[in-house]
């Protein structure tokens, strides 16, 4: 509770954004480097420490943390002031409160779909979750709380509350956006795709969701916000690379063919493949039940990270959480194997060990193949 995170620099940017919001400076419009160089933000005391420690990527890029994250960063700084440890403690408390809420709705969902309630322990006692959420303060746990809330109310046919929950999850981390097409076949109760009732229910869901997101972002609205936000987000598919699987294999092929890193092309291609996977799952069946929806969400998020150019350990908390509501356990294995990626962090710089990455993904792909292909055929 009272420790400064040592394995990630991200929390320094969280606090930095909290300072900006409290001073009326839009974090989506200004680079930390620009603010310091123009003397808009005084590089003294806590601000100087944050600037020095947040790393080159944060210093030279606009904030991409959505409104709910910005709200909690702002509250934390408002309560803690310029004390670094106090800011860390408040951020940690927010994550722990979110985890309590996640457990509450997670247990309700497990009860509804007749799965053992002890499955929740596979998530909350997982070393990855304890280290990356509670200790390193990554915000995935808040997003997962809102996602769990939304899924519970979706199962209960309370469409408006569910839509608000998804909106809050997206306004915490953008990733749940990928699940919207998957919800469409779940809305069908007649076994017929594109029936009138299905379209009406889904339209209500999307309207409430989009309205809530627009309202959340309207607080920060500026004509330049979208272009600057998109500029930074696009880096995840055209510049950033870490602990990838398919991308690293394709990158090697690209080097052999062209002599340079083709990440700009390969990243967009892999994003297209992920999109096609999500659309395939969305229209594979005319209607799906709740258990199938959860399985498809697990497959979609797994595909997203397998085809991603950047897979930091805390990213996979999303599919790990979804897996506890299914019969699949490959995410449990991945949550252990992903720690091999920490071998990249050296005293000076980052240098990935491709042998360890090969071990990670060899075991993962073997387990996925067994659970989804071999075991399924044996059961059927």
TrEMBL record:
Signal peptide boundaries: none
Transmembrane segments: 89-108, 120-153, 159-184, 205-221, 233-250, 262-281, 293-316, 328-345, 357-374
Keywords noted in UniProt: Membrane, Transmembrane, Transmembrane helix
The keyword Phosphoprotein is assigned to this record: no
Record carries keyword Methyltransferase: no
The protein's name: Glycosyltransferase ArnT-like protein
